[in-house]
Design goal:
The complex is a heterotrimer of chains A (158), B (290) and C (753). Chain A has 158 residues and is an alpha+beta fold. Chain A is 33% helix and 16% strand. A five-stranded antiparallel beta sheet of chain B has the order 4-5-10-6-7. Chain B has a four-stranded antiparallel beta sheet with strand order 11-12-13-14, sandwiched between helices. Chain B has a three-stranded parallel beta sheet with strand order 1-3-2, with helices on one face. In chain B, a hairpin with a 2-residue loop joins strand 6 and strand 7. Classes of the chains: A alpha+beta (158), B alpha+beta (290), C alpha+beta (753).
């Protein structure tokens, strides 16, 4: 069975790749496109480490097939900074020590950015509920929440 | 060596033909948030995936003569973001909001949530309570069915080979109506429902319940419509005594299993507690509505 | 062991501040490379075949069909690994037996748990590798299995090892059993102690096995060249320990294996030992190509060492005026399929926060048909503390005394003996209790269905072997390298200690983790030892380089080296003439003054202080459903001195969330055939963001005089009392003692009826 030939946009750049039907978007990003910033934690959509956005929506890339990405605009962690300029969330995560091992961090940053794009002034509870699909075992979420709220505050000031 | 075909038809006719003519196992691919997991664990091994997300009728949300109709391939997030729908049917939204996580809701569809036929699916009890219908298309044409008649058991539906659920239609909303859905899970998010309860009720001008539907999830082999529970509310002002009778009727209707998510005993008890709390929210919404 | 070092008393400029970590940008941009992120040309995909049975004799394995599948480049079974001598090696409380270790890596005579590796393949892609696994024919003779620790100890329980005779029992038992070892520790005379008590409180407890829950599954890339030289890129908590253990398992010289430390996505003790590395290396050797193995989440749960389930009984005797006069604990821990569980740790720490004259701790290490346990953050002690601190709570309640006052009254001070034999030597315990008592949360009013629990905990901490190297680059910038895996920011802490010692800015020090070929031996990043022991190595190597720098400056000034001082990052003349030589200046002249400037040294550090922590949890219970909401959590810990306070706080907050999960929702659920029903994050329920409150931290600083900056290890002790704090809170909210973990809603609902 021949592979699917897929064209899409990743972090603003046109890409094309070949994939089997069963290969997930996560597999494609990591193994075909060499973008290993998106992580695999569970492959069942429970941990959020593989979070990317597809046409602006945060999704678990382990639950999207590579072939379903055809024609879509995908954003991964590698595209979050603008060149050497970090996104405020990335900066705040570093300032607040909102990462320990850093494995869940790409997924959480992608989710948090999607939240702040939709809701620039979330409450703590709204942040916690939005991030419920992103597991972190190291931090207890305390500094993550602080970093997201601080980034939101900075971004509101423009 | 991948044997699995993937097709993405842009018409219902083409999708039906693909499914009806498939020689080996075939599956509809909507959100994929259940299907991909089942494929990986080899619970299902399809030879054909029919991706229906390019079919316009399956992706739309519209109001027709005061009745909402949304496509079976509308994602959870799209439905949540539809202000008018959320205002009319907050109970359905309660259920959809609880499917998985934000990321899962970005892909998961109500059609998939129903047709995956898990007894614990969160969008199903409030849809049953709402009196929703589904429009189905198949090799023999179109037909309508009640949501509560689609699932027949865990992982099993009444759909014939080649049939696809196209859209959901909700009835016109009467004045002074409110619906709600609650579920019990051990954590605050992310778990599969141990018990799910949906209540939809309408009050008359004097605040007496004139109509009600009650549906329970995760307490039987499929989501149940429980007329006896609704009867406990109809004709009452949904006072404490009525809520007690509601709870008892709901508990009595449960035929749950013991599994890693909850014991029989626990589900029966908590079904009563949750349905009472759900009815209280539905009542408050009914009173707040014009 | 090196002599202890006096704590610096000068004002600190860098230590205690909160700079950004050097690996931070890589981690927030996706550039950081974890175990699964490495590739080599010609790389193959390795996959492991695992037993579907909890207990089975392996009659034969036929790999011929798999071998013949096009695209398969190597197949292995245990026959490809040398057998190991049956011998327990090491400290009693953490002994290792490589006869067991090799069988855990790949089964020989028996499959001892569902998920036990029995064979492996390497193929050109994942799909072919998975197909090949399906073609391996294993002839199993399924045997009855046993999982629960009490069940495994029964005389008629199915035996995992037909010749297991319990160690340390005199006379040795005649019949074999699943009890690998019994240990008993005694202090004073417990019988007399209980006889003198006015009140005796006793309770039994059961806990279910749990997993460390690191989000990164094990992953590694291996290469094994035809001349016997091999390399590994692997995430682990100690690439030197992994190197040594893996080399032994393969029967190769340590020097032929080079291990590169990948970034590690969480360990908590679960990545202290090899799991897949020997398999990847054998497949690489047999195929002649690099092999990458990445485990699935299901494989992680089914095969990568979790923590023990337990059955415990604790008894405490107190006098009317609140003194604990006797304590006794019986601790039975599941070791999993192979010995050794950390039961002895539990025995040695359970009562050690307190000064008790009469103590007995008995521990049973019991094998059963589930994955072999590995360390989980102060291993064994949090399990034992759940029992001990619950009974301490009961005793306080019986006396009508505030639970913190009760603990304070009995707190161990320097000089007090522990049941393990060692004497307490450090202050700090009482201070954490006092800090908690003063915290506003402790006097916050509680509402209906709410309960407050407190608990204290003790952990040995560790020191040992570490190496550090410091080089002054040609332009005066500084490179610091150590061999300690960086799990959560230790590169930064090392750079901070180096900058402080050298008297320069933090940003002038670049801090890396070197591979096994590039620096001397360093022990695990575990046991709360890194900031302490590797920190000592760092400080010492900085001092050595300062000596060199002064010598070079002396040459450049043509004066005696005694007339040079090092101050504020510069060489200065002792005669205070004002001349200075910066690092840049000295480095520029290095060729003329003797060549490259730098040093490496190794320490075998001692003098570490134990950890101590006191924690508080408030919960609200829904009386109709049994659901628990955690309202508040406060961790007070004696951290010695916090090099980087944010990272110390992070350790405390992480432990709190793990304790909450262990207490309320986490457990392995097995079906009747011994298969795991919840090998995934859906039904293995770790706390999500909306399950947790903010976690307040109180950093008590009673410096350890043996460390140049006063450091006490901080990574683990905050986990020790966390479960008990939650359980005590729920018990108070419910009005009944909750003694069976996890405290699932149905158990709470039943308790409230």
């Amino acid at each position: 069975m021949a592979k699917h030939h897929v064209t899409a946009t990743v972090n603003g750049d046109a890409v094309e790749f070949l994939c089997d039907t069963q290969q997930s978007l996560l597999d494609v990003l990591r193994d075909e496109l060499g973008l290993t910033g998106t992580k695999e934690g569970c492959s069942t959509g429970d941990c959020g480490a593989c979070t990317v956005t597809v046409d602006g929506r945060p999704v678990c890339s382990c639950l999207v097939l590579g072939v379903e990405a055809a024609g879509k605009s995908i954003q991964t962690i590698e595209g979050m900074a603008s060149g050497s300029k970090l996104h405020p969330l990335q900066r705040k995560f570093l300032e607040h020590a909102a990462l320990q091992c850093g494995y869940c961090t790409p997924g959480i940053l992608m989710s948090a950015r999607a939240l702040l794009e939709r809701n620039p002034d979330p409450t703590e509870e709204e942040v916690r509920l939005w991030l419920a699909g992103n597991l972190c075992r190291c931090t207890g979420f305390h500094k993550i929440i602080d970093a997201v709220l601080d980034a939101a505050s900075e971004m509101r000031k423009g | 060596m991948s044997e699995m075909r993937y097709e993405a038809p842009s018409t219902l006719k083409a999708a039906v033909a693909l499914l009806a003519e498939a020689k080996g196992p075939a599956r509809v691919l909507a959100g994929g948030t259940d299907l991909l997991i089942q494929m990986r664990s080899k619970r299902v091994e399809p030879e054909l995936l029919v991706d229906i997300k390019n079919i316009a009728e399956m992706r739309s949300i519209a109001v027709e003569g005061g009745r909402f109709r949304f496509g079976a391939a509308v994602s959870g997030m799209e439905l949540l973001e539809h202000e008018a729908f959320a205002k009319a049917w907050p109970g359905v939204i309660d259920g959809v909001k609880l499917i998985g996580s934000v990321q899962v809701r970005g892909r998961a569809t109500v059609g998939g949530n129903l047709c995956n036929a898990s007894p614990a699916a969160d969008s199903v009890p409030p849809l049953i309570a709402a009196g929703a219908m589904v429009s189905i298309i198949g090799p023999n044409g179109r037909r309508e069915a009640r949501v509560e008649d689609v699932v027949t058991g865990p992982g099993k539906t009444s759909l014939a080979k080649g049939e696809i659920v196209v859209s959901f239609e909700l009835p016109e909303r009467a004045a002074h109506s409110g619906d709600a859905y609650l579920r019990f899970i051990p954590r605050s998010e992310m778990d599969i429902a141990v018990v799910g309860t949906g209540v939809n009720l309408t009050l008359d001008g004097k605040g007496v319940c004139s109509a009600a539907r009650v549906s329970l999830g995760a307490v039987a082999e499929r989501a149940l419509l429980v007329p006896e529970a609704a009867a406990a509310l109809i004709g009452t002002k949904v006072d404490a005594a009525a809520l007690e009778r509601l709870a008892a009727a709901a508990s009595a209707a449960c035929r749950p299993i013991d599994d890693k998510r909850g014991t029989k005993e626990f589900r029966i008890k908590v079904a009563g507690v949750m349905v009472r709390r759900t009815a209280e929210i539905a009542l408050a919404r009914a009173k707040g509505n014009r | 062991m090196d002599a202890p070092i006096k704590t610096e008393n000068k004002k600190l400029k860098v230590v205690g501040t909160r700079p950004l970590r050097p690996d931070g940008i890589a981690k927030v941009t996706g550039l950081a490379r974890f175990g699964a992120d490495f590739s080599l040309p010609g790389m193959l995909c390795g996959k492991i075949l695992r037993s579907p049975h909890a207990h089975a004799r392996i009659r034969s394995i036929d790999t011929s069909k798999a071998q013949a599948l096009p695209g398969v480049k190597a197949v292995m079974t245990a026959a490809d690994l040398p057998d190991q001598k049956f011998e327990y090696v090491g400290r009693g409380r953490a002994d290792v037996n490589f006869w067991h270790a090799t069988r855990n890596i790949m089964a020989r005579e028996k499959a001892l748990y569902e998920g036990h590796a029995v064979a492996a393949v390497a193929a050109v892609n994942k799909s072919i590798a998975e197909q090949a696994l399906g073609l391996i024919e294993v002839d199993y003779e399924v045997l009855p299995h046993v999982i629960d620790v009490d069940a495994a100890m029964q005389p008629d329980a199915p035996l995992l090892f037909e010749d297991m005779i319990t160690r340390d029992v005199q006379p040795p038992p005649v019949k074999p059993s699943n009890i690998s070892k019994r240990n008993e520790l005694n202090l004073g005379d417990v019988a007399a102690g209980f006889a003198s008590a006015d009140e005796v409180v006793e309770m039994s407890f059961k806990t279910k096995p749990v997993h460390q829950g690191y989000i990164e599954p094990q992953a590694c890339l291996a290469r094994f060249d035809a001349d016997g030289q091999a390399e590994l890129w692997a995430s682990s908590q100690g690439h030197f320990v992994i190197r040594a253990a893996t080399a032994k398992l393969l029967g190769m010289n340590i020097g032929n294996l080079r291990v590169h430390p990948a970034e590690i996505g969480g360990g908590f003790g679960g990545k202290n030992a090899p799991a897949i590395e020997p398999v990847a290396l054998v497949l690489a050797r047999k195929s002649g190509h690099p092999v990458k193995i990445v485990l699935s989440r299901e494989e992680v749960f089914k095969s990568c060492g979790p923590a023990a389930g337990s059955s415990m009984t604790v008894k405490i005797g107190v006098t009317k005026d609140g003194k604990i006069v006797a304590a006794e604990g019986v601790f039975k821990f599941q070791a999993g399929a192979f010995p050794t569980s950390p039961v002895m740790n539990g025995c040695m720490t359970a009562f050690s926060p307190y000064d008790i004259a009469n103590v007995r701790s008995i521990g049973y290490d019991v094998v059963s048909n589930r994955p072999k346990t590995t360390a989980y953050r102060a291993p064994g002690s949090q399990i034992a503390a759940f029992a001990a601190e619950s009974v301490v709570d009961m005793a306080a309640a019986k006396l009508g005394v505030d639970p913190l006052e009760f603990r304070l009254k009995n707190i161990a001070k320097p000089g007090a003996r522990t049941v393990g034999g060692a004497k307490h030597m450090h202050e700090g315990f009482a201070q954490t209790i006092q800090a908690m008592m003063k915290h506003p949360a402790y006097s916050a009013p509680l509402g209906k269905n709410q309960g407050r629990g407190v608990a204290s905990g003790y952990w040995f901490n560790n020191a040992g072997e570490s190496s550090a190297a410091l080089h002054i680059n040609e332009d005066g910038s500084v490179l610091l390298s150590t061999g300690s895996a960086d799990l959560s920011g230790t590169r930064a802490s090392m750079a901070m200690m180096a900058a402080e010692t050298l008297g320069i800015e933090y940003d002038q020090v670049r801090s890396i983790v070197a591979d096994t070929g590039s620096i001397g031996f360093s022990h695990l990043a575990a046991g709360s030892r890194t900031t302490y022991a590797t920190g000592i190595a760092v400080v010492n190597v900085c001092k050595k380089v300062i000596e060199q720098l002064c010598a070079r400056a002396a040459m450049m000034w043509d004066i005696k080296v005694e007339d040079v001082v090092w101050e504020d990052g510069c060489a200065k003349r002792a005669d205070k003439s004002g001349e200075v030589l910066t690092l840049k200046a000295i480095a520029a002249k290095r060729a003329a003054t003797g060549g490259p400037i730098g040093a490496e040294l190794s320490v075998n550090a001692g003098g570490h202080a134990p950890g101590f922590s006191t924690e508080m949890c408030d919960v609200e219970v829904d009386p109709e459903t049994g659901q628990v909401k955690v309202l508040r959590f406060v961790v007070a810990q004696d951290v010695g001195r916090a090099i980087h306070p944010s990272y110390v706080e992070g350790q405390m907050q992480g432990s709190a969330s793990q304790g909450i999960g262990w207490a309320l929702n986490e457990e392995y659920v097995y079906d009747k055939s011994g298969r795991l029903e919840n090998p995934g994050f859906l039904d293995y329920r770790i706390p999500v963001a909306s399950d947790l409150p903010h976690i307040d931290t109180i950093l008590v600083e009673v410096p350890n005089p043996n460390h140049p900056y006063g450091v006490k290890g901080v990574g683990e002790v905050n986990f020790v009392p966390s479960i008990a704090a939650v359980a005590n809170a729920v018990s108070h909210a419910v009005g009944r003692r909750m003694n069976d973990l996890p405290l699932s809603p149905h158990k709470i609902l039943r308790a409230m009826r």
